[in-house]
Amino acid sequence: MNTGRRPKTRLGSLLAAMAITGASLLLGLPAHADEPTAGAAPAAPKEAPRVDLILDVSGSMTATDIQGKSRISVAQQSLNEVIDALPPETEFGIRTLGATYPGNDKNIGCQDTKVLFPVGKTNKVEAKTAVATLRPTGWTPMGLALRGAAQDLGKGETTRRVVLITDGEDTCTPPDPCDVARELASQGIHLVVDTLGLAHDDKTRQQLLCIANATGGTYTDVRTPQQLTDKVKQLVDRTNDTYTVTPVKTSGTDKCENAPVLAPGVYSDREKFSEHRVYKVPVKAGQELRASVSVSLDRAVNRDYGVLLQATSATGQELVRGTDAGSSRTDVVSTGLRWSTDDSKGYVTASPTTSSKDKDKEKPDTTVCLVVSNSASPQSGVQADPGMPVELTVDLTAASPAPEGAAMGLGRGWILLLTLTLAGLLFGLVFGWIARWRIAVWREN
């Protein structure tokens, strides 16, 4: 979206501060925000982003079906690149499953999950050396590894992320890894599990989808070495981008009249396929609303999908909108919008008891309804529940003045238009004079 005062914002990260600053830089606007009102998201804790990567090193990882390379070698190479690109502030660790026990005793093999590199400030040489020593060996105690990763990361106010890379389903239930994921989610410890599958059978896919869905994470069906590297880097970067603010959980409704009221902050919700959810934001006279939304496509969807963010009045009149579309090449679609009371076009009215000269000062709050909609549809066999993760950023700042000349609809562009018009007129006159001269010469000869 690129019209006037309605720029499109991209979030792969959706921090309120980032959204405000990004819009300000693009538009030459001040990046300050008003003081948060009651109900705003809590102040950002000063914790480092924490990521624990669980790597499957079971015997099946010897299979050579990823562009002619073994699954374990692809995973090792990707981890090396991820470790080299780690942000200095990120606390990173690696846990393995099935890496040490080569025998056939299931009771022993299903206890085989170890810390390969502890979560903390990363010595990149030591971490890469540890990864290089791995050889596919044993079983796949996925549920036990998830519990271990939660302990590795500890508790805190910010979101911790577990990245699980595996080529098959759990071979050690109980505990069932999906039940473990639900158990961890119910503890309220801000733990998100993202799953990446190196094998492509339906049972593995459904199990990894279930784990991701239970914790608000994402699932990726990995087909190439580069896709694995890029996805893990993206997940690490996402943790780094969002760790300073834990989104406040909210629940949008289908109508504005009973929608939750949002103050400036970052919020999380869930939205089903082809659903719309509504939230309310009070906007005072002289304020500008800046909002952005990201919908994570954490399961397989059909091609050609999109997300729409609308700001409407309480009566349903559209004020502004932002849209984004995808074609299965991304797992997040994002968009944003800006609107101020100066754009109200009569939707904001002054109190009837207010004198005419004080109307601008006494205008009541405007109730702006933010509507988040998506046009995604699930592929065959994909579960619709729970809904897809939604992250919504809301901020209120001082309204920005309209660009100079906006009343003409052209701004400073009228100078260029006038110049082009004069140049065209001059060219036409010269060309006509030359044509007449050539005709006259031809007739004389």
Automatic annotation (TrEMBL):
- Signal peptide span: 1-33
Record flagged with keyword Amino-acid biosynthesis: no
Q: Where is the VWFA domain?
A: 50-239
State the residue spans of region: Disordered: 344-364
Q: Give the keywords, sorted.
A: Membrane, Signal, Transmembrane, Transmembrane helix
Supply the InterPro entries for this chain.
Answer: CLCR (IPR051266), VWF_A (IPR002035), vWFA_dom_sf (IPR036465)
SUPFAM superfamilies linked to this entry: vWA-like
| Spans through the membrane | 414-435
Highest taxon in the source lineage = Bacteria
Name the record gives this protein? Inter-alpha-trypsin inhibitor heavy chain H5
Q: Look up and give the organism this protein is from.
A: Streptomyces rubellomurinus (strain ATCC 31215)
- Recall the taxonomic lineage recorded for the source organism: Bacteria, Bacillati, Actinomycetota, Actinomycetes, Kitasatosporales
